[in-house]
Amino acid sequence: MQLQTGNLFSFEAKRGGEERIDMLITGQRLNVERIVSLGHASPEGFWYDDSRAEWVVLLSGAAVLEFEEDSTLHDMRPGDYVLIEPHCRHRVAWTHAKEPTVWLAIYHER
């Protein structure tokens, strides 16, 4: 048996460019990603729209999510999580610019 190990907080954060997305687990019905944001936000007018459910937890940093159906901004701090139903259009409105925002996202079939 070969163990696959790592640390969710071991990464090199970069300003500008793309968010860092690391696939931790991939399967037919389940994916687990670590996402590292540093001042990133979704482009204006862009909405995520996934056919799978997404459970996401904020591990460090700070972020604001926006959902198309509900114009209220959802402030997220470490430990906060949200279950996003399939095809629930959402976007990242803001992430902390000076402190890495680390997310753990689990995508699964409903």
Automatic annotation (TrEMBL):
For this protein, the record's InterPro entries field holds: Cupin_2, RmlC-like_jellyroll, RmlC_Cupin_sf
Q: What CDD domains does this protein's entry cite?
A: cupin_reut_a1446 (cd06981)
Domain Cupin type-2: where?
51-107
Q: Which Gene3D superfamilies match?
A: Jelly Rolls
The record ties this protein, via SUPFAM superfamilies, to: RmlC-like cupins (SSF51182)
Matching Pfam families? Cupin_2
Mind telling me what this protein is named?
Cupin
